[in-house]
Amino acid sequence: MFDKILVANRGEIAVRIIRAAKELGLRTVAVFSEADRESLAVRFADEAVCVGPPPAAKSYLNSDAIIAAARQTGAGAVHPGYGFLAENARFAEAVAAAGLAFVGPRPETIRTMGNKAAARDAARAAGVPIVPGSTGEVVDLAHALAVARHLGYPVMLKASAGGGGGGIRVAADEAELAHHFHTAQAEAAAAFGSGALYLERFLSRARHIEVQVLGDGERVVHLFERECSLQRRRQKIWEEAPSPAITEATRQALCASAVRLAERTAYRGAGTLEYLYDDSTGEFFFMEMNTRIQVEHPITELIAGIDLVREMILIAQGQPLALSQSKVEKRGAAIEVRINAEDPDRNFRPSPGRIGALTLPAGPGVRVDTMLYPGCAVPPYYDSLLAKIIVHAETRNLALARLRRALDEFQIEGVVTTTSLHKRLAHLAEVQAARFDTGFLERLLAA
Amino acid sequence: MAQHQVLSPLPGIFYRRPAPEKPPYKQDGDRVAEGDVIGLIEVMKQFTEVHADANGKIVRFLVDNEAAVEPGQPLLLIETA
Q: Are A376 and A39 a contacting pair, CB within 8 Å?
């Protein structure tokens, strides 16, 4: 059982993990790049170790330096957060080989679920519906064309080793599939180290709904679903829990399917199973599993009243889940918006810089997860997420009113942010009626 | 012999290649024309092309591949006719 934990991440999630660890009475170690020397995570942690220069490849992705920092400080566990090394099975193995606890699933689970074709096979075996697609990988263009003829167009080519929306191409017909196949293969090889592709039917007007699970290696519980249909370039920007679009019967079937699949992998830790939901038929299809904490976890924490990061750490300490499914209840509605350092009026151009004046929203039902403080640097080397404004209320309508109020309170100088887009969305009739799908935001921005 | 420096338009990470396994856009000694892509800058995970703003011959690159750069930092030295 460890009493000191190293946080192998930066930004708001590093702060979030340090908070949970401190509340459990653990000592905390932050790692940081030369660009993050003055970060909030470094300030809040009991100890901090520099692991390299600003580029992530040389610091936050430098597993040797991170494991050396854990050894040097006597940490007994590593929490990877999201992104960076969070879904890198080799890193999880190296952490274990160094005698440290990895706060996440076993390396073989990360490996299986990280391979899209293998994850689909696991889902099929667990009786979880999947988007109609190839059985395993498509080996060449002739194979792809044959599978596509069977599925019907449009189809989506995906990199087996891909993730985070990368390596995806949509083909409307045979000519487009032939056109995209070899470039998709080359891109997948370059980006993910494997040119393996698989094929899926492309659902053009679907919702993105995902289920949060927690497992202790034997038992799995779900903490209901989140809807994340508002996306730009396959990046979520606004998330809600519960989904405003599904019936209670669908919710039960969806969440039960997620538990079935996670139990099949003897899942340990926090995980998210992502699905597409078709409004017109009421069908849901498993897409992929993320074997880590997600950016949008706070909305689940608010409706379920459970601290997910705390649960992850307890599981990594070897404790069995204290939760039982019948005790997990949801209350009210929660919404999260991502405040990114991007300019919505200039095609979301990145806006690094230094924060000037800052007023964070507060008051009843408002939570802000952020690493910002007045005068802090927003370096250009990492992703643009600055803050998550999260609201919780008895109903979705009250949550929307609370979100509009919170966004009005939020003031930030020094960088341009996506706040104006969120204000617009929060006032939009379609958003208030939850009439959206994963293409909605891009159609809105193109209009 | 006049010399010209191409400056970084943005803060970020400078890449001399379009992808890790691809050859560099330009090598020391290459001819370069105004508008040619000489590298990429990654800012918050978005990539922006850097273009030469003069014609001539490349004397040398002033920063390494994958180096952190600041706006206005010289990236490349060009000998202009």
A: yes
